[in-house]
Amino acid sequence: MQFQKGNKIEVYKASTDEAWEPYMNDFIGLHGFITDPDTTINDPDALIEVSLEGKGTHRLPQDCLRLIGHP
């Protein structure tokens, strides 16, 4: 799945990526949007920048995110 800037997302599960920190478990279930998908890298394992409602901007692994509001 390729994320694009502005996509609405949900953090729907904990990541298996080594970058996942225990405090990030508080993000599960939150919604937000992609602010920097690093499309120049286009690496499915790269962290991407997301803005989460009420939690600020964070770089998260892609395997914990899913698009919302798309068919």
User: What's the number of extended β-strand segments?
Assistant: 5
Order of strands side by side in the largest beta sheet? Answer: 4-3-2-1-5
- Return Rg in Å: 11 Å
Tell me the overall shape.
Answer: globular
State the end-to-end distance: 14 Å
Residue stretches low in confidence (pLDDT < 50, at least 5 long) are none
Mean of the pLDDT scores?
Answer: 88
Strand portion: 25-35%
* Class by SSE composition: mainly beta
Please report the number of helical segments.
0
The percent of residues in helical segments reads: under 10%
What does the largest sheet look like?
5 strands, antiparallel
SSE series: EEEEE
Describe this structure as you would to a colleague.
The chain has 71 residues and is mainly beta. It is 0% helix and 32% strand. It contains no helices and 5 strands. The chain has strands spanning 8-11, 31-36, 48-52, 56-60, 65-67. Strands 4-3-2-1-5 form a 5-stranded antiparallel sheet, with no helix packed on it. A hairpin with a 3-residue loop joins strand 3 and strand 4 (56-60). The radius of gyration is 11 Å and the shape is globular. The model has no long low-confidence stretch (mean pLDDT 88).
